[in-house]
Amino acid sequence: METIRSSSDALLTIINDILDFSKIESGKLELESYPLNLRNCVEESLDFIASQAVTKKIELLYWLDPQIPDEIVGDVTRLRQILINLLNNAVKFTSQGEVFLSATVEKITPQEIPDHQLGLAEALPAPNPQGSSPLQLRFAVKDTGIGIPRDRLQRLFQSFSQVDSSITRKYGGTGLGLAISKHLCEMMQGTIGVESQVGQGSTFWFTILTHATPDPDTSESVIPPLELAGKRLLIVDANTTNCQILTLQTQSWGMFPQSVHSGTEALEQLSQQPDFDLSIV
């Protein structure tokens, strides 16, 4: 049954990719523009590939810049499609280690928009009553997988193209996922790229242009307790990325974190600086 299910899922993915590519080539693919909760979008994307990661014992991690608004305007289905494409590839080509998704925000003015993104006025909804400025969001999916040779990076975003034929035989796929993601990014007035080193892993990143919604739903906002501000925190975690995420998150809450990677280091730190208020182990 598991073989039947996985084969059906693979076939459905191929069909959907071909349909999307046909729409893109014919100019019939259109983006929607509605308020969306970015945290929910990211977590739904991670949930989609979580079972694959668990099977391979790969850690899934994510961090969202606290400056990202609770709600932005965009096409949640297509944004999620890009994220799932990149996350799925990262898990597929990683045998051990982790996959880390991050999202950061840059507030820009129309004068700062690059020439190739001058379609912003047509791509974004009309300015809201509060007149919020355009936001450039940058997403990055970093893995500890097999990596990609430098001379083969450019062909990744070409239609029906993969690094080489052995990749298709071993991992499957149509070679359309990244090409579709590239088109979707460009429709969102963004760009996409990759940095990689053979044997160490890859980082696929992309940007989109959007803005905050005028009246966001704050019912799901992450509001830190006021009593955490100013507290000294000791973080103990063997995973460097986890330490980085916890450090950034707690700093945004006004805390003063310090991280170590083992119980031995924690005891040494406590012997030198015993005045920590809290510890995450």
Automatic annotation (TrEMBL):
It catalyses: ATP + protein L-histidine = ADP + protein N-phospho-L-histidine. SUPFAM superfamilies: ATPase domain of HSP90 chaperone/DNA topoisomerase II/histidine kinase, CheY-like. PROSITE patterns: HIS_KIN, RESPONSE_REGULATORY. Residues 232-281 form the Response regulatory domain. Residues 1-212 form the Histidine kinase domain. Pfam families: HATPase_c. Its EC number is 2.7.13.3. The keyword Cell membrane does not apply. Keywords: Kinase, Phosphoprotein, Transferase, Two-component regulatory system. One of its GO terms (biological process) is phosphorelay signal transduction system. It comes from the Bacteria. GO terms for molecular function: protein histidine kinase activity. In the N-terminal section; belongs to the phytochrome family. This is Circadian input-output histidine kinase CikA. It comes from Neosynechococcus sphagnicola sy1.
